[in-house]
Amino acid sequence: MLFEDVVDFFKNIQPFQFLEEAVIKGIASSVSMEFYPKGSVILKQDGPASDSLRIIKNGGVKISMRSGNNEDVVIDYRGEGESFGLVSLMGREKQKTTITAIDDTICYLLDKDKVFTLIDTQPVLTEYFLQTHFTKYMDKTYKQMRDGSLYCGSSDYILFTTPVGEITNSKGVVSIGDGATIQEAAQAMSQHKVSSVVICGDNNLPLGIVTDTDLREKVVAKGRDVRETVKNIMRLPLMRVDAKEYCFEAVLKMLKYDIHHLLVVKDGALKGVLTSHDLMLLQGKSPLSFAKDIESQQTIDGLEALSNKINNLVRFLLKEGARASNIMKIVSELNDRLVRRVLNIAERRFGPAPVAWCWIVFGSEGRRELIFRTDQNNALIFADITSATQEEAAHKYFSDFTGFVKESLEKCSFPSSLAHYTASNSQWRQPLRVWRKYFSDWVTTPTAEASLNSLSFFDFRPLYGDFTLAEDLRSYVAEIIEREEAFLGYLANTVVNNRPPLGFLRSFVVEKSGEHKDELNLKIKGIVPLVYIVRLFALERDVRESSTLGRIGELRNSHTIIGEHADEIEHAFEFITLLTAHHQAELLEKGKDIDDFINPDKLSNLEKKTIKDAFHLIARLQDSTIERYKALIWERRWLGRT
Description:
Blueprint lengths: L2 H9 L9 H10 L1 E5 L4 E3 L8 E7 L2 E6 L5 E7 L4 E2 L1 H6 L6 E4 L3 E7 H10 L1 H25 L10 H4 L13 E3 L4 H11 L3 E5 L5 E6 H9 L19 E3 L4 H11 L3 E6 L2 E7 H7 L4 H10 L3 H20 L4 H27 L6 E5 L1 H4 L11 E5 L5 H24 L17 E3 H13 L3 H10 L3 E5 L1 H17 L1 H13 L22 E2 H19 L7 H8 L4 H30 L7 E2 L6 H37 L1
């Protein structure tokens, strides 16, 4: 170490910059320096207390804590000029967190005797470390860990932390052989007072399941002979859940596959059967009850009354400490069911369509990233027709059909798109060949309007109808992108233009005037850049998954940039999304319209720090994108100037 360099370093970081020069020189002469390779654990939770205060010279660290359910929760990131290790050093107890190097990291080490001397003799250090660091920072962090606050997004609440095995019937699985009769199956269910029985074949391997619903709908309602073999009415395939999985995962499977029974597996063996009733008893406001109510509605008025309750469910989940990703999955599943029910009612009203068709959704709805509903973002693809008469009939049918759906969704609290991105707009209900031309034009001639359309539509996913039409279009899009590499360069330019709102000294750049003066748009400046970056790399690798977190999962082991920063991106996306959701929930409770603007001054130190770290991550990802697409980006900018 060069003594002068160490002195200059401490002169420019808090709180050492407030000390007299002689004191700083004394510190510089007593520090040592250590190097930690990326990924190395510097301090481990429940390990020995820290013997030094470590001040980061280069690199960065992640601070995490293992929660009660043995889940590692990231509570902070720290970078150049920041310190760690003071809590355990002062307390002389076991280390309360795990500190991991997220980059190759160099730290200056100030031993505990020197730290105690400085705290005793330098009031400015005492005030900074004891008042700011402990009282306002660490106490809040640990409280949030215990209470399951919006930062950690993880709590001891039932749905998200109870393993399936804990509520599964300990008596095991009630089963019968596949040669048994329907009557014997019913008798077994009655004897054991259960709502299902597993049908087993040779070697006692499960083949299927019969539930009380099957007996009611397939036997009693149809006057079936109860002497038939039970395998004639059993359900396939069997859906399973591991005993270690949380009940939330079971809820999602039941919602997704429209079932009410899951086989529970533990260590490869059947442990029992989990029912929707078990989950509803566990948590009175289970999303399963909403799903059941949605499916039972036969009119738009019935769906309208029900849809208003979904926002109440979201507020409940937020109070339960649910993660943003968990809330988005549940809300998307319920919204999908509601929209499909509207489309089903529309089909009954207008009769069969003259051609095969597919309803697609895009934007945040396409990515399954809705928490509170935003504008409708939907479109319709129908099969190519050679006859002009048939095509005219198709346009007439779908014009009436989509108009009804748009109005029905508005009644169900899905506002109409301000940009008219709905299937009721004739531009967005077209045969497959027209949709192919749309994407071909957007990719080969990426004008400003084309760029806007492509960014909106590239996250599309099929929701109802003939999914092969959407799959055909998705494959076609992948083909043209592979041929037109310049298009990815154009998208990369869009990615890097929206720079994070940080000024000098890491201060937030906020709105200077207007309705949102002194506020920051978390969606535009935080969520959107992450979505755009991940989407760009997903298009590079032809990843068909539409959600941001799903794309990260698929790119983690196949894309260098995402692979290096995957955990940080997920953490930033989860945090900013959840912070926005809590803000919107507060607005709704006050009877106000939701928006994405927050005042940074009203956030805790921990929340401010996390947002700043997320913005710095975005900047690093944008810089990496510039390097990756440098030639194409600068070519595009040069052409734009000329």
